[in-house]
TrEMBL record:
<keyword id="KW-1003">Cell membrane</keyword>
<dbReference type="InterPro" id="IPR018076">
    <property type="entry name" value="T2SS_GspF_dom"/>
</dbReference>
<dbReference type="GO" id="GO:0005886">
    <property type="term" value="C:plasma membrane"/>
</dbReference>
<feature type="transmembrane region" description="Helical">
    <location>
        <begin position="301"/>
        <end position="326"/>
    </location>
</feature>
<feature type="transmembrane region" description="Helical">
    <location>
        <begin position="134"/>
        <end position="151"/>
    </location>
</feature>
<protein>
    <recommendedName>
        <fullName>Type II secretion system protein GspF domain-containing protein</fullName>
    </recommendedName>
</protein>
<feature type="region of interest" description="Disordered">
    <location>
        <begin position="228"/>
        <end position="250"/>
    </location>
</feature>
<feature type="transmembrane region" description="Helical">
    <location>
        <begin position="157"/>
        <end position="178"/>
    </location>
</feature>
<keyword id="KW-1133">Transmembrane helix</keyword>
<feature type="domain" description="Type II secretion system protein GspF">
    <location>
        <begin position="17"/>
        <end position="145"/>
    </location>
</feature>
<keyword id="KW-0812">Transmembrane</keyword>
<keyword id="KW-0472">Membrane</keyword>
<dbReference type="Pfam" id="PF00482">
    <property type="entry name" value="T2SSF"/>
</dbReference>
<feature type="compositionally biased region" description="Basic residues">
    <location>
        <begin position="235"/>
        <end position="245"/>
    </location>
</feature>
Length: 334
């Protein structure tokens, strides 16, 4: 499957994950399932998805560590995080004897939800970004217009003291707007490709009949091996898995798990189903928060436009024309 330029990378990973889940649930052995997917993608080294699937297929065929192969071949960015989530799910299922197909299906749904959120963010950014690009072109149009009318706007901007001051201030304001906008966008972009992954993996491990202690150990080991640190700033380099750090997100997950386990003991119902439901709730909450952030982002991005971009346009596009007109007028009176 070849992704288009406007398709989020996470959605491409989700499509492969879902296909793999369907094959496994149909009874296809994992080496054959990976090989079918690799054959369908081809061997292009320019396609990160094809590289990861080919590496997993080779590892499965040779009977070596499939999660390690996935982590080693995973690219950077959201797609890499999504592939490491697949590796963690695979590791937990193999380590506890849980069914892998249902786990991967649920993971694929989560990844598709994140892909849709990324589309929402891109849609929210489209308007303000288009406006910013248009405004940044207007100074050149204004300078050209002044030159056509016979005014030396370019000379005024680049060779006079006031013109150079306007140019310097306009550049500073433009750079400030660019950095300000990027910070806003980075804050709005989701930091994980699998919200509730830790809870979901624990549910999968417990569904195999393993004890809580064994399930917890399997999940922690899988997350460590696959480089899924709780702190999203700790992005591992290719082939490396950093040590996980305890964060507020991890504490929230631990509190949710404790509450579900207490309910399970009190009601006498399987903890795995309750944990799966809790993970689904976490995913929906994360998607709702991301959608709200994307909706608010479109409005907040008007701030750098009004505070920085428009003044930069006035300084670079309008001020040289006015200075040129004023200079010509004074020269005419002289």
């Amino acid at each position: 499957m070849r992704g288009t330029d406007d398709t989020p990378a996470v959605e491409r990973v989700a499509a492969i994950t879902q296909r793999l889940a369907v094959l496994l649930r149909a009874g296809v052995p994992s080496p054959a399932a990976w090989q079918y997917l690799a054959d369908g993608l081809g061997r292009s080294r320019r396609d990160p998805t094809a590289e990861v699937v080919a590496a997993a297929a080779l590892a499965a065929r040779d009977g070596v560590d499939v999660p390690a192969a996935i982590v080693s071949a995973a690219p950077d960015g959201p797609a890499g995080h999504a592939w490491r989530s697949v590796a963690a799910a695979w590791s937990v299922a193999i380590g506890t004897g849980a069914r892998l197909g249902p786990c991967l299906s649920q993971l694929a749904r989560s990844q598709r939800a994140l892909g849709q959120t990324q589309r929402d963010i891109a849609a929210a950014l489209a308007g303000p970004r288009s406006t910013s690009r248009l405004v940044m072109v207007l100074p050149a149009v204004s300078l050209l217009f002044g030159s056509v009318l016979g005014f030396d706007t370019l000379g005024t901007l680049f060779t006079t003291g006031p013109g150079l001051v306007c140019l310097a201030l306009g550049v500073v304001l433009s750079v400030a707007a660019w950095r300000w906008s990027n910070r806003m966008v980075n804050r709005a972009v989701p930091t994980t490709s699998a919200p509730g992954l830790e809870i979901d993996l624990l549910a999968i491990a417990l569904s195999s009949g393993a004890s809580y202690v064994r399930a917890r150990a399997a999940v922690d080991d899988a997350l460590d091996r696959c480089g899924l640190a709780d702190n999203p700033e700790h992005r591992p380099r290719r082939g490396r898995a950093p040590r996980r750090t305890r964060t507020a997100e991890h504490d929230d997950s631990a509190a949710a798990v404790e509450g579900v386990l207490a309910l399970s003991r009190a009601a006498g119902v399987p903890a795995a189903e309750l944990l799966a439901s809790e993970a689904e709730s976490v995913r929906w909450d994360a998607r709702s928060q991301a959608q709200r952030a994307a909706a608010a982002l479109g409005t907040r991005l008007m701030l750098p436009l009004g505070i920085c971009i428009l003044p930069a346009f006035m300084l670079v596009g309008v001020a040289p024309l006015m200075l040129s007109i004023l200079s010509s007028t004074v020269a005419g009176f002289g």
